[in-house]
Amino acid sequence: MTERTIVVIGGTSGIGLELARSLVARGDRVVLTGRHQAKADAIAADVGPGASAVAVDISEPATIAGALAAIEGPVHGLVLAAIERDANTIRDYDLARAQRLITLKLVGYTETVHTLLDRLEPSGRTGIVLFGGRAKDMPYPGSTTVSTINGGVEGLVNTLAHELAPIRVNALHPGIIGDSPFWSAKPEGVLDQYRSRTPGGELATMADVVGAVQFLLDNRGVSGTSVYVDRGWRLT
After folding, report:
1. Exposed end of the chain (fewer CB within 10 Å): N or C?
2. Is the overall model pTM greater than 0.90, yes or no?
3. What are 110-113's contacts with CB under 8 Å, separation 24+?
4. Per-residue pLDDT averaged across 84-88, rounded?
5. Mean pLDDT for the stretch of residues 55-75
């Protein structure tokens, strides 16, 4: 074991789960979270003896402190990977869905950091990674809420990197992740249009994202930075 404890918020599925598996495999202890304790416990048991689980729903910020009280310090890394998908056009604007997603990312992410601050080791060894997304600067119809909050994540990283130094805070903005559960379930041919827009004709993978997160957790020279994982999609 590396004697490092990493908390992965949203670690029971998708990229968060792949990250938890990778961190445990390299020797870190991981506390992964999901909304339901029984499911999170089962997933942690499957990940391995280095993993444990806590139930929390960060779309309900008032419950976060109580839910995370069981996590003991010191914590050397925090990854906020919990997301929700939303297609919410202006013409058919769903106020409840918009409020939930804004609360989850901008308020829930911030309250999670606030809650765990007394357990985060106060040194450059500790890294915090917030998940945003490329929709912040590559919007699509119905992405108003998603584009706005992912832009907000970038602003949040800037303030937290100042306030929490020497703890490092960075953002990771994935593009189209071809083998993620969300994108790989698309009908045949849907992803071809996205592949054609990358310089190499391939989409980023979950392994690419996991590698980028580990870099941001480990590299003591990087803080206040946004990293794009999209196979160069922004160049086309």
Report:
1. C
2. yes
3. 110/156, 111/58, 111/61, 111/64, 111/65, 112/9, 112/56, 112/58, 112/64, 112/68, 112/78, 112/80, 113/78, 113/80, 113/160, 113/164
4. 81
5. 96
